[in-house]
Amino acid sequence: MFSSAASRQYLVAVVGGLALFVTGSSFTWATPLLPQLKSKDHEFQLTADQGSWVITLVEVGCLAPSIPAGFLADRFGRKTCLLYVTPVFILTWFMVIWWRSYAALCFMRFVQGMGVAIHYTILPIYLAEVAAPSRRGALANFFSVMWYLGFLFDYVVGTFFDYDGLTWFCIAPPIVFMIAFYFCPESPYFLMMNNRRGEASKALAWLENKLPEEIEPDLVAIEQSILEEKKNKGSWKDVTATPSGRKALAIILVMAMVYVLCGLSTLLSYVSEIFGTLSGNENSANLMSILAGAAVLLATIVSGFLSDRLGRRPIIIYFGGLSVLCLLVTGIFYYLKEMTDTDLTDYVWVPYVSIIFLMLTAPIAVGVIQALQGELFSNSTRGFAAGVYTLWVTFLNCVALKLYQVVGDGLGYYVNYIAFTVFTLAGVIYAFVFIPETKGKTFDEVQMILQNKRLN
């Protein structure tokens, strides 16, 4: 059935992508349950502050393993790390079924956050190393699709099942992943790094659907790549030593700010509560949550096609600008709702439309960030830049997820949306002034553009 190299590599990508499905469903597990957990009828009712910590702690858990995960992958293997961290999800799901308390939820969210960081860091490395260069772009987009598919899974299942039902459903994907991924090959690149040439030959021969003797030139190329990487191994000094390196680092840090402070991940984490509060109708809120998840998934798929056609910079500017409008409309609605006596009963559909439209535009705007990272940094400094980006995004997400509830209860939710609007607008202006178009350009060409401050 899988008789071609393409079909085998896509099969491995689908199976490996289940790891991101698992982490995506873990990330948003609390989202559809939050109204229920804060209800007086629940067996252990959470306060608003406790609910925000249950949402936030998964990101807090992500902080610690983000950089060590790369070292673990080099020491023990990509496949091994992905497999052995997965039981953490299964065990913690069972824990919150048997031990029903706020403390158990906090422990589960923090520990699963560590697992999320390891999966999220290592899977892209594995996919890049098992795929042919011509397929890496498609697989990189597939990575994001599986992440948001995990979100949609929670929204759909959470609509029809309660605390126990959703948790039991979340146990199945990691079990399926472990069984299926066990039969996938280890990364040939990792095996060659550790002088396991025979195993690397077998793994690569299967992935390329060739005889072992036919892939000898490929093994030699991997060997040369490893030697070159060791020779030119970069550090933080290589990024910050030149003006172009500092500009590149500034670009990804600003884009990380836009990624988080456009409100996308925050709203996806609180979407059920947001729609439930607006409508006062649980069924309507659940339907809108599913629609939001479907919109993000669709936008992520579209982003992969648009990035190579429109270019990185235009996408950030155009779709970021549309996101600004969506956030501004939502902020104005909440201001009128919370700070004035205006009757908005007939206009509840306005934030519905603006938030759903944000779910269509924001993922496209921020979806080019991974491509930018690959084009702004050399092979020797890309790992350091990715680590800095991941840590910065995780920190910002921790702050944004926690403060959403605090600011909303203390100052009004309109303040959150106005802040999201301002930060996103600042990012769009920054992209217009400082970010060069990198599509189709070599690393050296991009560096020349950064040095000369030209935009095309």
Walk me through this protein's architecture.
There is one protein chain. The chain is mainly alpha-helical and 456 residues long. Helices cover 80% and strands 0% of the residues. The chain contains 22 helices and no strands. The protein has helices at 5-27, 30-37, 48-63, 68-76, 78-85, 87-98, 102-130, 136-160, 163-181, 188-193, 197-208, 216-231, 236-240, 243-261, 264-279, 282-310, 312-339, 349-366, 369-376, 382-410, 413-434, 443-452. Helix 3 (48-63) packs antiparallel against helix 20, helix 7 packs antiparallel against helix 8 and helix 8 packs antiparallel against helix 16.
In short:
The chain is mainly alpha-helical and 456 residues long. It contains 22 helices and no strands.
SSE ordering: HHHHHHHHHHHHHHHHHHHHHH
Q: What coarse outline follows from CA principal-axis ratios?
A: globular
Radius of gyration: 23 Å
- How would you state the average pLDDT, rounded? 85
In terms of DSSP E residues, the strand content is: under 5%
Number of H- or I-type helical stretches: 22
Return residue spans where pLDDT drops below 50 for at least 5 consecutive residues: none
Proportion of helical residues: over 70%
Amino- and carboxy-terminal Cα gap: 46 Å
- The secondary-structure class comes to mainly alpha
Largest sheet: none
Number of DSSP E strands? 0
Tags for this model:
80% helix; 22 helices
SSE arrangement:
Elements (H helix, E strand, L loop, with lengths): L4 H23 L2 H8 L10 H16 L4 H9 L1 H8 L1 H12 L3 H29 L5 H25 L2 H19 L6 H6 L3 H12 L7 H16 L4 H5 L2 H19 L2 H16 L2 H29 L1 H28 L9 H18 L2 H8 L5 H29 L2 H22 L8 H10 L4
Helix pairs in contact: 1-7, 1-8, 1-9, 2-15, 3-7, 3-20, 4-5, 5-7, 6-7, 6-9, 7-8, 8-9, 8-16, 14-19, 14-20, 14-21, 14-22, 15-16, 16-17, 16-18, 17-18, 17-21, 20-21
